[in-house]
Amino acid sequence: MNAAFFTLHSGLPREAPGDEESLAWALARAGTPQDARILDAGCGPGADLKTLARLRPQATLTGVELHAPFVERVRAEQPGVRCVLGDMTSPPDGPYELIWSAGAAYGPGVRAALTAWARQLAPGGRVAFSDCLWRTERRSAAARDFWARDYPSMGDVHTHHTTVKAAGYRVLDARWLSDAAWEAYYGPLAARARALRADADEALTAVLDETDAEINLWRQHGDEFGYYLIVAEPAG
Asked: What domains are there in the chain, each with its CATH number?
């Protein structure tokens, strides 16, 4: 990711679709205790850490993130949260009662992430994570072309459940994220893109054009793909 990308994404509340309602659902389905140790793996700028602090005020929260400015922002805005610069598959401070990850497991790969996280879970601990999947076999050329570039290994619900099982987990519950969860990401992103457009140089203009195309793709073809949220536990 280049400097223009991070110019656009600087200051945004979140880096993937998600909202408080879906996170609250995951906490309930996972049976996460009030005083749990919780990891946000790939926490970005910390939106879900703020929500976790509201929903589980007695919990011990840790975030891990590869992008240093995001880590610095979490540390500045959330002094009660430990945020570490590093690989989400090698988090500090475990074991955890819950490992949460919003749209970030595709980086190392879902199976690799789940396999690594199993070693970081406390007895009875669970994982809740979202990942983008195909929702239908009927796929427009625009959607196929976009995801072939951005997430070529993207699967569907069947292949996703198979991957989770192959990583040694059983699925406790699953659901699609709502349109509101997408708007929570794309709304602020679109507003920032508009604000930057007038003074953008060539590199930033290219990033803004790509972003507008991505948002328009979801608005026109969002019934073909979506973020799927799974709550799972080790099967052994």
From this structure: 13-181+223-234 (3.40.50.150)
The pLDDT tens digits of the residues spanning 38-90 come to 999 999 999 999 999 999 999 999 999 999 999 999 999 999 999 999 999 99
Cα–Cα distance for residue pair 130/99, rounded to 1 Å = 12
Coil, helix or strand at residue 98: strand
| pLDDT per residue as tens digits for the range 153-164 | 999 999 999 999
One-letter amino acid of 71: V
Distance, in Å, from the CA atom of 100 to the CA atom of 63, rounded to the nearest integer, reads: 10
Q: How far is CA 62 from CA 86, 133, 153, 195, 227, in A?
A: 12, 27, 29, 33, 23
Can you give the pTM of this predicted structure?
0.95
